[in-house]
Design brief:
Distance between the termini: 24 Å
Number of helices: 2
Largest sheet: 2 strands, antiparallel
Shape: elongated
Oligomer: single chain
Number of strands: 2
Length: 70
């Protein structure tokens, strides 16, 4: 499930890169739909950040899966 979400966030990163360049070159859109969609994209970035803090990882030397929050 996390891998699918990561691919989804990767597409959102691509969208964000393209729109950021577009907004830098031209005036940002005044469309209500575009603003809402940009807020939704930002929300998913925050969710991804939170999920990265809560997921387990492998210890670099022992390759043991660490699930502690410490």
């Amino acid at each position: 499930m996390k891998a699918i979400f990561d691919v989804f966030v990767l597409f959102l990163v691509g969208y964000s890169c393209v729109t950021s360049m577009f907004y830098a070159a031209f005036t940002p859109s005044n469309s209500h739909f575009v603003k809402i969609f940009d807020y939704v994209v930002e929300f998913f970035f925050w969710v991804d950040l939170a999920m990265n803090f809560l997921q387990s990882f492998k210890h670099p030397e022992t390759y043991e899966t660490i699930t502690d929050f410490k």
